[in-house]
Amino acid sequence: MPFDHAAASVAEAGVAVVRGPIDTARLLAEVADVDAGGNVLFVGTVRGVTAGAVTRSLTYDAHEPLAIATLATLRREAVTRFDLTACGIVHRLGVVAPGEAGVAIAASAPHRRAAFAATEWLLDRLKRDVPIWKCEEDSGGGREWVHPATAPRPGAEA
Questions:
Q1: Cα(87)–Cα(52) distance, rounded to whole angstroms?
Q2: How far is the first Cα of the chain from the last one, in angstroms, to the nearest whole number?
Q3: pTM of the full structure
Q4: What is the DSSP track for 32-51?
């Protein structure tokens, strides 16, 4: 599947990290296939309130080459594991406001259950394994870097 996201800063077949809005309609169109009975698009958006605190924004940062490589590995595994027709993953970097998309995953499969299961599995694995960090900024200016818990955070000593 060719994957050509116009705003991609780094991309590999089927995956990209971008520094602007995610074109979700384009992502879904890129995985659509006449042999797919199920086409699923998951869009993860920034919440306006997290744990009772108003969210001003999230800032995503990443080790881009490693993030792309890990996303590509997860994508290939999902295609095999769930017998997908096609799959694409786009993650946004930089500042993202409440209501905007930070991540999108599209999957197509002969049957809907596989496409749904694949997108959920991919999001869970992405949050656990991909070196993309997010900094939550609340309305009072408080900031906290989170995710993934096992990876070093930007600027942290090794």
A1: 35
A2: 38
A3: 0.86
A4: --TT-SEEEEEEEE--SEET
pLDDT in tens, 46-105: 999 988 889 999 999 999 999 999 999 999 999 999 999 999 999 999 999 999 999 999
Nearest CA to 123 out of 155, 68, 158, 78 is that of 78
Distance of CA 139 to the CA centre of its chain: 25
Burial 29-44 (b: 16+ CB within 10 A, else e): ebbeeeebebbbbbbb
Domains, the chain, with CATH or none: 25-145 (3.90.1170.40)
Phi, psi of 69 (to 5 degrees): -60, -40
Inter-axis angle of helices 112-129 and 64-81, to 10 degrees?
150
